[in-house]
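Title: Comparing notes on inverse folding

I've been comparing how different people in this forum approach sequence design from structure. To keep things fair, I'm posting one structure and asking everyone to reply with a full sequence. Here's the target:
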């Protein structure tokens, strides 16, 4: 056992640790961007297409065929459309 300073506490090691941490964050961010792109694409185009389904749901609701079913389907359609709007908000924003 010697009293020599440890190489673990050297400034070079601290710089490497900071660089590795920054590299790991950058890699994580790029992986998140790659995974988010398909969700944004689907969210955007779902938000574009979903309003086409309002007309049949409203027609069925006003026609009084199955009142409970149309109400539930309208609420579900509105909720899915809201989620699609939020998910697709950043699609091709550049």
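Reply #1:
Here's my take.
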């Amino acid at each position: 056992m010697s009293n020599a300073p440890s190489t673990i506490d050297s400034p070079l090691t601290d710089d490497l640790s900071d660089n590795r941490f920054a590299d790991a964050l950058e890699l994580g961010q790029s992986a998140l961007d790659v995974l988010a792109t398909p969700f944004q694409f689907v969210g955007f185009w779902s938000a574009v297409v979903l309003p086409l389904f309002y007309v049949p749901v409203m027609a069925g609701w006003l026609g009084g065929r199955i009142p409970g079913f149309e109400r539930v389907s309208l609420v579900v359609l509105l909720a899915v459309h809201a989620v699609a709007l939020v998910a697709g908000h950043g699609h091709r924003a550049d």
